[in-house]
Write a structure and sequence with these properties.
This protein is α/β, with parallel strands linked by helices. The protein contains 9 helices and 9 strands. The strands form 2 sheets. It has a 7-stranded mixed β-sheet. A two-stranded antiparallel sheet has the order 1-2. A hairpin with a 5-residue loop joins strand 8 and strand 9. It is globular, with a radius of gyration of 16 Å. Its EC number is 2.1.1.77. One of its GO terms (molecular function) is protein-L-isoaspartate (D-aspartate) O-methyltransferase activity. Keywords: Cytoplasm, Methyltransferase, S-adenosyl-L-methionine, Transferase. Belongs to the methyltransferase superfamily. L-isoaspartyl/D-aspartyl protein methyltransferase family.
């Protein structure tokens, strides 16, 4: 269920601190290739995509090569990890971590739906620090094994501290046992915004999820930001147009 992103063209201007404009959007996405993790992160920052110092520190601390086992792991494009899923392009990870930066504070709890390779879950774990907790959920057991092995080879203390935990389950239902969550990231496109995940947000929490939208004969996906206010009310905002694999069941995913 990890995202397979083919387009990051903006549909709307994301909120501060990203400060993305229509004029510079094409120059930023897809041009942040690196030969090292440091070079990749530096280019994402220089492009204005990686807009949080804490998100930058996380992407420096979590080596993408430990999660992407193909040649040239620092290219700014999605890469296959098996089971008809991919690890997202680095610029999409940078967007996600920047958008969720305030919610991924020290001691926060986060849910990564469609955790795939474990990369984004590990970045989240770095941001919530030792008092925090990140749950990565996947419906393919083999991906749980892969992501656990990746984290063990990159940042084993995340597992030793129980700062990160990978579980097998239907991400569309979330993981209520560990909730509520300050931050929820969904790495696959839902037909409709999952109310179950909104219910698992803590007050002050934020969810980002790609959701299918149809206008006339056009079918596309909007990355939606959902904020739960202190009084429990919900605010929704369209951030950008994206393209992710569907949020679906295991048999459909493997068949596709």
């Amino acid at each position: 269920m990890q995202s397979r992103v083919f387009s990051a063209a903006l549909r709307a201007v994301p909120p501060s601190p990203l400060r993305i404009t229509r004029d510079n959007r094409r120059s930023m996405a897809w041009h942040c290739n690196g030969t090292t993790n440091q070079e990749m992160v530096t280019k994402l920052k220089d492009a204005g995509i990686l807009a949080s110092d804490r998100a930058e520190a996380a992407m420096l601390a979590v080596d993408r090569a430990k999660y992407c086992h193909e040649p040239d792991p620092y290219l700014d494009r999605p890469r296959r990890i098996g089971y008809n899923v991919t690890i997202s392009a680095p610029h999409m990870h940078a967007y996600a971590l920047s958008i969720l930066s305030d919610q991924l504070a020290d001691g926060a709890k986060a849910l990564d739906v469609g955790s795939g390779s474990g990369y984004l879950s590990a970045c989240m774990a770095h941001m919530v620090e030792s008092r925090g907790r990140v749950i990565g959920i996947e419906h393919i057991p083999e991906l749980i094994e892969i992501s656990t092995r990746n984290v063990r080879e990159d940042n084993p203390h995340f597992l030793k501290e129980d700062r990160i935990k990978f579980v097998v389950g239907d991400g569309r239902l979330g993981h209520a046992a560990e909730g509520p969550y300050n931050a929820i990231h969904v790495g696959a496109a839902a037909d409709t915004l999952p109310q179950t995940l909104i219910d698992q947000l803590a007050p002050g929490g934020r969810l980002i999820c790609p959701v299918v939208a149809i206008e006339g004969f056009q079918r596309f996906q909007d990355l939606l930001q959902v904020d739960k206010n202190a009084d429990g009310t919900i605010t929704r905002k369209k951030l950008m147009q994206v393209s992710y694999v569907p949020l679906t069941d295991p048999s459909t995913q493997l068949r596709n």
